Amino acid sequence: MQKLVKEGVSHREIARRLHMHRESVIRYARADHFPEKPQQSPRSGILAPYETYLGARYQEGCHNKMKLWKEIQAKGFTGSRMAVVRYILGLRQLEQQGTELEQTAQTIALTLACLSVCFSITQRI
Predict the structure, then answer these.
(1) What range(s) does the HTH IS21-type domain occupy (predicted)?
(2) Which of 22, 68, 84, 96 would staple 15 via disulfide (CB 3.0–4.6 Å)?
C-alpha cells in the first residue's frame, strides 16, 4: 500500500484495488508501518463449564452429538446444539492429529531401527 501511495495513486483507487475501506487506506497510509493484528484473548464461551464433561464422555466413546447436547441440557446448558457439534468436531480433529503424530513417531522409530541394522551389517562386511 505504501508503494501505491508513493506512486501517487489515490486513496479511493487503492481501496478499490485492495478491497479495503477508504478510511482504512487513509489510516494505513499515514502510519509508518503496517500495524500488527491485535491478539484476541481467549473467550470463555457458554460451553466452558461443560467442556470437561463432554471431553470425558467423548473419551468414554460417546460421539453422538445430539445425545451429548441433551445430556448437558439436562445439566443446565442453554446453548445451541451447534455449539456442541463444533466442540465435538474439534475433539475429533485433535484426536486425528494425535493419531497422525503417533504414526509418524512410530514410522521414524522403525526407520531408525532399520537404519541401525543396515549400518551394523555394512560395518561387518
Answers:
(1) 1-58
(2) 22
Other C-beta atoms lying within 10 Å of the C-beta of residue 77: 20
> By the 8 A CB rule, do 67 and 43 touch?
no
- pLDDT band for 4, please (50, 70, 90 cuts): confident
Please identify which residue in the block is written with the cell numbers 478491497.
Answer: 19
Give every CB contact of residue 13 below 8 A, 6+ residues apart in sequence.
Answer: 4
Grid cell digits, residue 3: 508503494
> What per-residue confidence (pLDDT) applies to 94?
84
The residue assigned the cell 508503494 is 3
Write down the mean pLDDT value for the chain: 81
> Residue 91 in contact with residue 68, Cβ under 8 Å?
no
Q: Is the dihedral of CA 96, 98, 104, 110 positive or negative?
A: negative
